[in-house]
Amino acid sequence: MMGWILVQEREEGFPLHMLYTPVATYSGRVEDAIGTNLGNAAIIFGKNGKFEAFFKGENVKVAEKYAYSSVLGNPDLPRKLARIFSSKIRKLLKKAGRLGSADFSKLSNSELAGRITEFWRDYGDSYIYSEPLAWILKDILGQHAERDVKNALSKRGRGKEFGRIFGLLIAPAEKPFATREEESLLRIVSKIKQSGSARAFAGNGSLPAAIGKMFRRHEREYFWVPFDYAGVIWDEDQYKEAARQLITQGFDSAKRLAEMDSYYKGIVGRQRQLERFLKLNDKTRIALDAIRVTGFMMDYKKECFTKAHYAYRSLLLAAAGRLGWSMGQAYSVTPGELTGALNGNPIKPDSDATRVLYMWGHNARVLDGTRGKAFLRKEGLAAKLQGEATELKGTCACAGTVKGPAKIILTAKDLHRLKQGDVLVTIMTTPDFVRGMKRAGAIVTNDGGITCHAAIVSREFNIPCVVGTRVATKVFRDGDILEVKAAHGVVRKVK
Fold it and tell me: Both 70 and 28 in a single domain?
């Protein structure tokens, strides 16, 4: 029997309030969509949204095998779930979009609580069709497809091309939202150069009115990108500064735009051509198609739910104001605790406290103080695993070999420490990492599979990347010289 396994962790930004419904989905409700779930879950929430999620290893394996068998038996399953999610999320976003302009002062406490309950009900109804299938399949799909593609390439004497070819075969045809944001900003940079305003703009000078309008439109379309669950937003001045840096550094925006256009143009045709050339069997083709669809879903759901999280913030602000709480306190309670407080059940949230959320099936219990500590001791979760190794194995997300100094970055706010060519070692990446990721010589993460955020972005920028090492941030230290052989999924400390 396998015990608890750490499946995800973050140093900040994962507040209990925002994670309660997604975790409950994995623990029970996802069975309504894909026929299986992950059962018992133990989630540790700490100060500033510090987060560690554990599931029972045997349940993860059972769910993985069930989901893989389901996809092989019904290749349309990932697309079916994507269609259902697309329909449901549109309704959620339409409702959420009205929250920003709503006058909550006219609502009673119980009516406000009802709005909160409605939001999370709709959220859960959408969520079960979004990420769970992709997350459960993230390892097994890649393992099977990678093995078969490697064998096919070896038979044709092209084994050394595995990283490039596999990266192309698993790439979604749709552009990730981070790519669309970059593309939009680069068009503005190109327009500034064409207008002859580059030198003046680099020196903080004025811009033609038409270009100023482009910046404002860009802000309206992409301000939400770094928000995630409870983060920050970007404004027009930050986008202008990003564009100013690109111009000052002499970045070739036209070349990058052409590369992006070339990468996506005809990508489906190139994938089909490669599949025919390699004579891949039906099982491998199904796995590759599922990887592409679930990879797209991982990005699309992040875009949709980030927008929903930002819109929900106005509702949470109204509730916190009624109760005399700070936003930190509001984020530290469950949605049920918040609505209970609005309905007259007193609670004094401590935003600095460590809370343990234990879920099994459709049941949940929050354990505080001594009860939480006792549970962690009983379940063997009281201390993190500390690794001692010089070499780690993970999953290749983007091929290439790089040697360089490690930079351990646990949160996006520390990305200023990442220098050009450093090996970025992190727990996982999120949209607010993207601008810093471009400086990395290679990327190594604890979490994730071939459809995770780091994998998608690394393929976009052609940065060697190994994901899913589990303990890279615990094993390596700043300044360690690492050799990343991404095609083999190997990260090795050389000195």
Answer: yes
